[in-house]
């Protein structure tokens, strides 16, 4: 009788533990602040829930002294592409240099991995193996104090279930959103959040008091890639180059 009581209590304890573990695991997996994992750009398509698609981008309005040259360059690029001679002076892929911010957050269909550790969120883009570090709950420096780089300096904080990231210090040679020019005073604000269990949005607002008439905002959407292993992507032995007219050419092999 005692053995039966003991076995009954043991089975009950095991069942209770299993139930508590399941609840704990479920709570962890549904944590709206857990962005960990690999995410691939969400392109929508047939069968996709339109509610998960990113909102349309806002207008890109440059100040007159920059707008004319920018529009002329865009027209020239379109004409060159039609001729089959794409221009690549601002293409990181051709020049074998990092894309930098903000372009590295969406390169074709290459995924981005998010790693969360105490005090830091690390974002790794598979294309060119680019890495960003977002320091949590730290004060941002003044723009003039940050050495210009491809990724700048990023600090973040949680606003409810949204990770708000402030990035400054992007060097002016890094191509901006849609290839826009920018000054060393450009500031990028991201609001990263889960809009569904497996869908992530990164709302990006770019401010530049020297180049832009007003801030421009657009949103990148991603879907989760369960159990995906990021692969190495480096630019090595590149045969493409940009000639004196800005046209992308291919180096011919010599014997």
Report on this structure.
There is one protein chain. By secondary structure, the protein is of the alpha+beta class. It has two domains: 1-30; 31-250, Lipocalin. It contains three helices and eleven strands; from the N terminus they run H-E-H-H-E-E-E-E-E-E-E-E-E-E. A nine-stranded mixed barrel has the order 1-2-3-4-5-6-7-8-9. Strand 10 (240-242) and strand 11 (248-250) form a beta hairpin. The radius of gyration is 23 Å and the shape is globular. The termini are far apart. The model is unreliable at 1-28 (pLDDT under 50).
Based on the coordinates given, report the CATH architecture of the largest domain.
Answer: Beta Barrel
SS-based structural class? alpha+beta
User: What radius of gyration results from the CA coordinates?
Assistant: 23 Å
Question: What topology, given as strand order, has the largest sheet?
Answer: 1-2-3-4-5-6-7-8-9
Main sheet summary: 9 strands, mixed, barrel
Q: How would you sum up the global shape?
A: globular
Question: How many DSSP helices?
Answer: 3
Provide the helix percentage.
Answer: 10-25%
H/E element sequence: HEHHEEEEEEEEEE
Mean pLDDT: 85
Tell how many strands the DSSP assignment holds.
Answer: 11
Architecture blueprint of SSEs:
Blueprint: H1 2-29, E1 37-41, H2 64-83, H3 92-95, E2 112-117, E3 120-125, E4 130-136, E5 153-159, E6 162-168, E7 187-196, E8 199-207, E9 216-224, E10 240-242, E11 248-250
Parallel strand pairs: 4-5
Antiparallel strand pairs: 1-2, 1-9, 2-3, 3-4, 5-6, 6-7, 7-8, 8-9, 10-11
């Amino acid at each position: 009788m005692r053995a039966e009581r003991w076995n009954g209590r043991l089975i009950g304890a095991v069942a209770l533990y299993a139930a508590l573990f399941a609840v704990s695991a479920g709570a962890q997996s549904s944590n709206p602040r857990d962005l960990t994992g690999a995410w691939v750009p969400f392109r929508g398509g047939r069968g996709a829930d339109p509610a998960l698609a990113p909102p349309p981008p806002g207008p890109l309005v440059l100040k007159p002294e920059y707008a004319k040259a920018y529009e002329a360059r865009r027209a020239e690029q379109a004409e060159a592409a039609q001729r089959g001679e794409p221009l690549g002076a601002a293409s990181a892929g051709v020049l074998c240099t990092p894309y930098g911010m903000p372009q590295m957050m969406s390169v074709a269909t290459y995924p981005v991995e998010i790693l969360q550790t105490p005090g830091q969120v690390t974002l790794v883009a598979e294309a060119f193996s680019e890495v960003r570090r977002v320091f949590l709950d730290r004060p941002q420096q003044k723009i003039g104090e940050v050495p210009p780089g491809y990724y700048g300096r990023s600090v973040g904080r949680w606003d409810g279930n949204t990770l708000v990231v402030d990035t400054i210090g992007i060097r002016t040679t890094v191509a901006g959103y849609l290839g826009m020019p920018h000054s060393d005073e450009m500031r990028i604000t991201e609001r990263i959040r889960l809009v569904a269990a497996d869908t992530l949005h990164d709302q990006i607002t770019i401010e530049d008091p020297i180049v832009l008439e007003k801030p421009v905002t657009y949103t990148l959407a991603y879907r989760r890639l369960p159990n995906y292993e990021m692969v190495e992507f480096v630019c090595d032995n590149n045969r493409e180059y940009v000639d004196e007219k800005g046209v992308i050419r291919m180096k011919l092999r010599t014997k």
